[in-house]
Design brief:
This protein is an all-alpha fold. The chain is built from 27 helices and no strands. It has helices spanning 50-64, 68-72, 80-89, 94-108, 114-126, 130-142, 150-160, 170-181, 185-197, 204-216, 220-232, 239-251, 255-267, 274-286, 290-300, 309-321, 325-337, 344-356, 360-372, 379-391, 395-407, 414-426, 430-442, 449-461, 465-477, 484-496, 500-512.
Length: 523
Amino acid sequence: MKNLPKLRKFSTFLNTTKTHLKNPIESSLPCNFKRSPILLPHRTMPAARGQDLDFVNISHSYLINSEWDKLNKLVSGLTPFRIKHILLKTRKDYVISLEFFKWVELKNSELNTLDVISIILHILTKQHKFKSAESIMRSTLETHLLELDFPRKVFEALVYSYKMCESSPRVFDALFKTHAHMNKFRNASDCFSWMREYKFYPTIESCNAYLSALSSLNRTDIVLSFYKEMCRCKISPNVYTINMVVEAYCKVGKLDLAIEVFKDMEIMGLAHSVVSYNTLIKGYCSKGLLSSALKLKNGMENCGVHPNDVTYNTLINALCKEGKLHEANKLFSEMKRTDVAPTIVTYNTLINGYNETGNSEMGIRLFEEMSVAGIKADILTYNAVIMGLCKEGKTKKAAYMVKELDRNKLVPNSSTFAALITGQCVRNNGDRAFQLYKSMVKSGCKPNKATFKMLISVFIKNEDYDGAVEVLEEMVKRAIAPDADILSCLFNGLRECGKEGVASDLFKEIESQRLIPEGFATS
């Protein structure tokens, strides 16, 4: 067999610098590129003779008659050679083959060598028992994670035993899919490369599994490269494939290419699904092209595709971010009118949107509407309502909402405390805000830079520089750098009230932690 190159790049689908490795996927190929497939090598296995033959026949007889007690007495005579012959004799009945394989695994897992494993994988995939095959593949690969060349050994073992087991190409498809499900992208791309040498290609379902795994980890670069490779190999995409490609182009900001692929679906004979529309709508929204997003949504029904909750939530969220609450509310009303049930995401988005515009009253109204609609509020809902109230200094109402959390068995988190601290800062109550900060830390919640900035600001505003210093020291303790403007205000205040020594010591402490913000200058 031709030696398979050991590829150690993250993915062979990405364009890389020139290398001596000649791999069919390593560099871009012209559309008319053709390569003659390599003939599959055939490794023969010696026939069982003498005692080996007797052992195989007796074991086979016990096995097909489920005489496990008698089979247990033969354990000491098991060898990989005999196991392979028994599996080949039972290969027409995958149930018996799998039971025997598992029995050997329990008795002595070391006997299930890679050659043995390759035979059971051929048997299972030939019978379309892919879940069982992928389970064995996964456990085999996981036990050899530190062996960088082990995936190649597995592939070679399957190639050598392919003809002997009268197998099907689906065994390689299953291996490729297993690598994808394990998020072993380099192994998956190498596997694809080796498969291509023999003109074996993964099914579209396995390609989609790979694309989905890549997409979930934001490896859009490989998603797009692999899709191009699929096209070169004439692997026909389906709707799920195209949706992921459109999403990938949107993520990298190439909206024009996303639109092009979306439009090409008709040429491919693929009908746009609601997910197709939602993906492109999200792409438009991410670019701030709300009019185009709304136009696309309005055109969906003309094509027989009805907007769903994701469609509306995406648009409502984009409108809220731009402060277009009137338009967002119109969509919300349309959503209910067309029997698309609003979800908790819908309500949380709108409540946040109204709170950003200082309309906590509308946020409360939506909160109450949720309850009537039978939608249970989560911690995000409560945090949004509490923040809306606190931004307007309505701390008593916010405190009531916090009590509601306990009644609904919800635990306050960092955002809850940040909202309450905001409320006290709005009311210029620095001491109470700092007490809430201490409760926050005691509860195991972590304050962020914005919370610290707010606390320091309110103390400086009240000319309580000792309080501001105490907060800053807490900030430094957590290795969070203050903003240059806040630090300047604090140092100026300390000097004005004759506390230059405190300012000097504080500067030295911040400097020692390397937390001096860019643009800050002592005077």
